[in-house]
Design goal:
Elements lengths: L2 H22 L5 E3 L4 E5 L3 E8 L5 E8 L4 E10 L8 E9 L3 E11 L7 E10 L10
Length: 137
Amino acid sequence: MDFHKIMKFFKETAFILLPFVFFGCASEKNLNLEKNQTSCKIGDTIVISLPSYQSAGADWSIVNYSDNFLKVKSRGVKKSCPIFGGGENTEISFEAIREGRAEIKLGYFKSGANVYTETQDFLVDIEYAHPSKLKSF
């Protein structure tokens, strides 16, 4: 095979293989949105943890989010204090799937209320992570 054919083959297959290498090696670091705004790289996980009282019928839920930039990974409730009567935290995690600015809006809903009693907005700036900067396994 001559040099030009090898280079042509490499250029054609690089675009096919790059997404598998890129997404397969993405970092799994968790980010906490304490200030309602953060930045991350594609493949990172964004974790939002807010106080809730699901046992009393009050909980946080997703009102809307930029589903073209983020994917919901998980949602759950954890005890914030091990003693009886201790509070709970609702944890919602998202995976960054595309470069850009994503918005997340969460609403606090109390049992018996027909509307959200509180909402919180979050901004996430998602950057491209070049494959050479990703960790190898």
